[in-house]
């Protein structure tokens, strides 16, 4: 068994149905993604675009066990994006909460706490948690000065 290059867990007060729907529905993704509100789904492929319309991210479902495990390939579309990698989302119900585990495999660069991939996943998970627990759309973006630095 291969170890992920990055792993994180969070607990969300929601049902496994709601969490599964949020991970597999483009309209739901658009409500919590920290970088965009433009996500479309074509079959098993999701396309996310920056607010100005430029391609941002594509991911395709590789395998799924509804409400428990979702595996996707993950390909950044921005300038100098790394080669495609693989992400596994695992859902475990714990009372009135779901434990969401995110594992990212096949990264070609070092994972640094608070930067890059680690920062992106933290922001995405925070938006997802807020959306499912409150129904509020929030974008945990970096301040503009940090994005251009």
Any key phrases for this structure?
149 residues; globular; disordered C terminus
Describe it for me?
The protein has about 150 residues and is an alpha+beta fold. The protein has one domain: Alpha-D-Glucose-1,6-Bisphosphate, Chain A, domain 4. About 25% of the residues lie in helices and about 35% in strands. It contains four helices and seven strands, in the order E-H-H-E-E-E-E-E-E-H-H. Strands 1-7-6-5-4-3-2 form a seven-stranded antiparallel β-sheet. Strand 2 and strand 3 form a beta hairpin. The longest helix has 19 residues.
Helix and strand layout, with pairings?
Blueprint: E1 6-12, H1 16-24, H2 26-32, E2 38-42, E3 45-49, E4 55-65, E5 69-76, E6 85-94, E7 97-105, H3 116-134, H4 144-148
Antiparallel strand pairs: 1-7, 2-3, 3-4, 4-5, 5-6, 6-7
